[in-house]
Fold:
Amino acid sequence: LRTVRVSLGKRSYEARIGHDLLGWAGKWLRQVMPSAEKAALITNPEIDRLYGAMVKQGLEKEGFKIATLLVPEGEEHKTLDTAAKLYAGLQAVHAERSTPILAMGGGVIGDLAGFVAATYMRGLPLVLLPTTLLAQVDSSLGGKTAVDHGPVKNNIGVFHQPLLVIADTFALRSLPQAEVSNGLAEVIKYGMIRDGAFFKLLEKNIEKIRAFEDPLLEEAVARSAAIKAAIVSKDERDAGIRNILNFGHTIGHAVESASDFRIRHGQAVATGMVKASAIACRLGLFPRSQLNRLKNLLLQAGLPVTMPEVEMARVIAAMEHDKKVQGGKVRFILPRSIGRVFIANEVSFALAVEVMEGGDD
Ligand SMILES: NC(=O)c1ccc[n+]([C@@H]2O[C@H](COP(=O)([O-])OP(=O)(O)OC[C@H]3O[C@@H](n4cnc5c(N)ncnc54)[C@H](O)[C@@H]3O)[C@@H](O)[C@H]2O)c1
Structure:
């Protein structure tokens, strides 16, 4: 078991990371909520089938009465409509201000249930049980909750920090490889932005991590979570340093949106990291040998390193629309070396387009 702390004064909490932890949720919830009688578990039917019993047994043992609220699988259900159904479900079981919400699933469930927890009766306690690699290393840390409205993602939301995060690496074994790769894009990002030694560990062990070998999987999750936790602890509301978490996301977001979200986030971020690094190479700020190491690692993680089949005009339009382009300049997070990035406010948009269109990087 490894513990990562998010330090936010009174809103501080721990992420507990390790093997076979879901059965402990009841005991740990009791420790932080000594007198709560009920708990609401929000998940989707498939995750409930796989891991619901384990969590519920632990909760029952501690005397919690459990209401399970199921949400259909998929990003298309991360909406205000679904949130309204969950509010009705909470009302039906007479949830109170002190009723904890347990959100078990990937980032979709975490964001949606987190949003419901933040807003129902002006805020219920929240415990996150992330079950995808992406959720364990990224979305469960930092308190961002949201739903999608209209064509825009995550545009209705609020900060609401959980009481506790329980990341059970055993639960990752049922993930399809495409979901593992999706999460690995963020794991590799952490190495790039903050920790060259971690990047080396990934280069050496990526195959074992993809095969869910412990203790390497646990190590990769814990080191990633620790990097994210340290950054959000310094900048809870995303006004400064938290920006460096957007490495690979300037182009990544534009690619995702230009593909109407057909391209998965991790794949788009992988391409975005390569292109941002290629821009840094062109500016003479980042060695090409290190760009090659990044590309090799991404390929070994099952991720793309070139622009996907999307209309370039739409990618460019998405970047312009994002207000990231001002006066012909774009803000990028650029690498100086593996493990170190900086915020570059004035990258020429023309150069970015040239690198995106170029096949060589
Ligand atoms: N709040 C944040 O800071 C933050 C950060 C990054 C991403 N996000 C959000 O996270 C979402 C993406 O999250 P995701 O990548 O986890 O996708 P997801 O939640 O859609 O999960 C991916 C798929 O895996 C399934 N699944 C989950 N756990 C499983 C398991 N253990 N075994 C088998 N199948 C399992 C899910 O049902 C789903 O079909 C997006 O909505 C994104 O906006 C939020």
In short: The radius of gyration is 20 Å. The chain has 13 helices and twelve strands.
